[in-house]
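Retry 2 of 3 after timeout on previous attempt. Resubmitting structure tokens to design endpoint.
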């Protein structure tokens, strides 16, 4: 098949696949320890520092996913109740929604060793966050602190 034919067929196929893609649901946790420090992770496959989180698996509640992701990405136990911060629409991803919780009782059971997914992780004082914290993470923290109004967009 030549390039022109591939483009003529490939474009509509990609558009159809996008149109049929179902909504995805993700979760992030602003996990604070007893000293008020925030736990962040730096992935191997994305630039910047993020709150721990990921996709909600089929048959899993959003809260269960938050606990699972905190365990997997940081060896964290979320010992205080989760407080819902908001549900956000990720326009860059099309149909993705992200539920953000805050937990003011996170405890790390052991340091999280780097692997193929997580390059670095740790607790950070809010006045000493890494320079490359993602804009969405900074926005959520500003919302939680009351410095900006909560918006529906990620």
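Retry 2 succeeded. Sequence:
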């Amino acid at each position: 098949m030549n390039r022109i034919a591939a483009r003529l067929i490939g474009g509509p196929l990609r558009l159809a696949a996008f149109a049929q893609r179902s909504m995805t649901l993700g979760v992030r946790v602003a996990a604070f320890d007893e000293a008020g420090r925030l736990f962040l992770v730096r992935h191997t496959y994305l630039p910047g520092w993020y709150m721990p989180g990921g996709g909600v698996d089929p048959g899993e509640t959003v809260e269960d996913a938050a606990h699972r992701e905190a365990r997997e990405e940081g060896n964290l136990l979320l010992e205080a109740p989760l407080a819902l911060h908001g549900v956000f629409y990720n326009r860059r991803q099309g149909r993705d929604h992200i539920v953000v919780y805050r937990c003011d009782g996170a405890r790390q059971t052991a340091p999280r060793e780097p692997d193929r997914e997580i390059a670095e992780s740790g607790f950070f004082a809010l006045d000493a966050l890494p320079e490359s914290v993602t804009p969405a993470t900074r926005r959520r923290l500003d919302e939680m602190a009351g410095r900006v109004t909560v918006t529906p967009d990620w």
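Attempt log closed. DSSP finds three helices and nine strands in the chain.
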